[in-house]
Specification:
Layout lengths: L4 H16 L3 E10 L22 E4 L6 H12 L8 E5 L5 H12 L4 E8 L19 H4 L6 H5 L4 E11 L4 E5 L6 E2 L11 E2 L14 H9 L14 E8 L4 H12 L10 E4 L10 H9 L3 E5 L11 H7 L4 E4 L12
Length: 338
């Protein structure tokens, strides 16, 4: 479960939108005219387009600044500039095949130098330099059944203004202290890690005794493009360890701790919890505690490929409006079963 619970939440919707778009617009065509019929500030008559079925014609390179027009006209008179008018034509239906038909017709019109699709801009995928990026252990980010996160990274790689509380077994180790704060940390988390709290000992020692919370934190926010280890879904984010490793009351206390910081300078915006086990039993007290938290709560569904309708300790938590329950798949796209 700790391989993908928050990745789906933060990235899936925008990634799906990116990959749902066609190669070019199905309703518009771009047309370039020959210089002899091009105008700096006027457009050709509508009859120029013949019998083309269209909704509108827009001259998208029509100048309006008199100084610019005069300057370019002078350059034209000295044969220093060859000016081409460029038009965008909107067609009545959204269909890529209709676009191709319109292009063929436009190319037959005398005076048209070029007619072609209105291609969408496609950014190169943003790829980090972290050495384990191509390791199969990160297939969930970019593999065949992964979330294709590089396309989303073209838009954002996260922000340290977003604070995520990691309710788990702790984060980092005292053997790898944060270079500034001295808190238990990990070399691939230093820049994103804030001081946390241990609800077992009621101290600031939030070190990870089981190496589970550190992995959870790394999925959410291992520093990206730093040439070290792995990369998280968010290259930039603020992580707060909330260590609650042994009992239910510790988890409730961690939720209270985050709730008590709401609307203050150190507000925790999102809570995640990927710890799981039948020993947690019915989660009615979790339901009430989670419901008290004003932010988003991300809860793991577990790794057992089980029907949550009969696993009431998860089903109960899922009924809270601010909760998202997230399942997991394996490298072949199958539901996780460990």
């Amino acid at each position: 479960m700790t391989k993908r619970f928050l990745t789906i939440i933060m990235i899936l919707f925008i990634t799906r939108l990116l990959f749902a778009t066609p190669e070019f617009c199905g309703k518009t065509v771009l047309v370039v005219l020959e210089p002899e019929i091009s105008h700096l500030y006027n457009s050709v008559d509508d009859s120029f387009w013949g019998n083309l079925d269209k909704v509108s014609v827009e001259n998208i390179f029509q100048l309006t600044n008199p100084k610019a027009i005069n300057a370019l006209q002078e350059r034209q008179s000295r044969n220093e500039l060859t000016f081409h008018s460029i038009y965008k034509i909107t067609l009545p239906i959204d269909d890529v095949n209709n676009v191709l038909t319109a292009i063929d017709y436009l190319k037959s019109i005398k005076g048209v130098k070029y007619a072609g699709p209105n291609y969408f801009v496609v950014l190169d995928d943003k790829i980090p330099n972290d050495p384990l990026w191509n390791n199969n252990g990160l297939w969930n980010l970019h593999g065949e059944h992964g979330i294709k996160v590089p396309a989303a990274w073209n838009i954002t790689t996260g922000s340290r203004n977003v604070v995520v509380g990691i309710i788990d077994t702790g984060v980092g180790s005292a053997n790898s202290p944060h270079p500034i704060t001295g808190i238990p940390s990990h070399s691939d988390l230093h820049e994103n890690l804030l001081p946390g709290w241990c609800f077992e000992t009621d101290t600031s020692d939030s070190s990870d005794d089981f190496d589970h919370g550190t992995k959870s934190a790394g999925i959410v926010g291992a520093v990206g493009n730093n040439g070290i280890g792995v990369v998280g879904v968010n290259w930039n984010v603020s992580l707060v360890p909330l260590k609650a490793p042994t009992s239910r009351d510790q988890i409730v206390d961690a939720i209270r701790y985050a709730t008590d910081k709401w609307d203050d300078y150190d507000q925790i915006d999102i809570l995640t919890m990927s710890m799981f086990g039948q020993q947690l039993g019915n989660e009615l007290n979790f339901e009430y505690a989670i419901g008290n938290f004003p932010g988003l709560f991300v809860r793991a569904a577990g790794n057992n490929n089980a029907n949550l309708d009969v696993r009431t300790h998860i089903q109960t938590a899922a009924s809270v409006p601010n909760v998202i329950i997230v399942g997991a798949i394996d490298i072949l796209g199958r539901r996780m079963e460990l």
